[in-house]
Amino acid sequence: MTAVPARRVVITGMGAVSSIGIGLAEFAAGLRAGRSGAGPATAFDTTGFPSELVCEVTGFRAEDWLPGPLDHVGRPGRFAASATAMALADAGIDAEALRSRRGMVVVGTTDGQSQDLDSLVATTVTDGPEHLDPALTSRLSAQRLALDVAGAFGLSDVDAYTIGTACSAGNYAVGDAFDAVRGGAVEYALAGGADVVSRRNFASFHRLGLVAPDACRPFDTGRAGILNGEGAGIVLLEPLETALARGATIHAEVLGYGLNCDGSNPVAPDRSSVARCMRLALDDARVKPEEVDLISAHGTATKLNDITECDAIRDVYGDRPPRTISLKSMLGHAMGASSALATIACTIALEQGFVPPTINHRETDPACGVDCVPNRAVEAELKVVQNNGLAFGGNNAVLLLGRYERTPS
User: Assign residue 209 a region: left if phi > 0, alpha if psi is -120 to 50, beta otherwise?
Assistant: First the structure.
């Protein structure tokens, strides 16, 4: 039996819902400006907590992107479906053109419908379970995220599922989609991640002592933890030949990815395992370490994570690693959406030729020892970018993206 050659896979559409900008143009402008998404929480009461800051999406109206009634769709589903609408518009393709093709819809998340869960718990405590809202109960399953996307666009000939690998779930989703398109199982894939801020995740991170009092400062000597964030990022992946045949704009090429699991500690990252995951991604992409121009780190601004991740990066890249930034300084920790939004940010950086900054920066911790591009974006010619996602439970996912280069005919 003759093996089917792997197909080149490209990103032809992107959609972003974020605290620094809704829509691709606004998101890109926010990245270049080093915009902060931080502000007082409005989605829930922060009374009794030491901080009120989160990175919420403001000014979002799903009705601006999606037709029809939306009562059956929760906030994360509205984020994901709206980001999908943006991605399709960006790709210059409508849902009808996709319905005749075998596809995939895969969405990563940490907390799924966490705001609905907050509401249901509050009702149970104050009024009793007999007063639960059936509409909220019906949309509670995290699996609804992928189904909300597929349903919004009438996509039935698809594998539609949600991945719950916490903070690396967006990279897991894009990696799964990449494999399916590369191997010929599907003709396109819509992939990314979505999460919302909620009292539940806000309280959880406070209980762990991981929330910063004022700002998220990755790699900084004064870093004190995360700010909770939210949003969604969705990309459209297609085989290169399909994209070329329809004259699509090619934003970037997905070169490869790596996955592994530490399995040793529920919250602490493992240096050797993180380094191994990066090597797996480089090997899959057939990229040498010296060819990588930029690393979008997981970069949570917690004491242990930043040092461990930077140590792992030096294990792979030596004492002079590529510029290493953290988008969480701007976006907060958007959980399952984090690495999905980072995939889009990396693609924008490749395409527009700049490195987004790590904001809120005052002094780099010598134990981190990376050029984090403090506070201001810099112009740069980028060819290969690495996107790290490192989750609780040790679920690591690293994605390699490259500037699209047309091979000589």
Answer: left
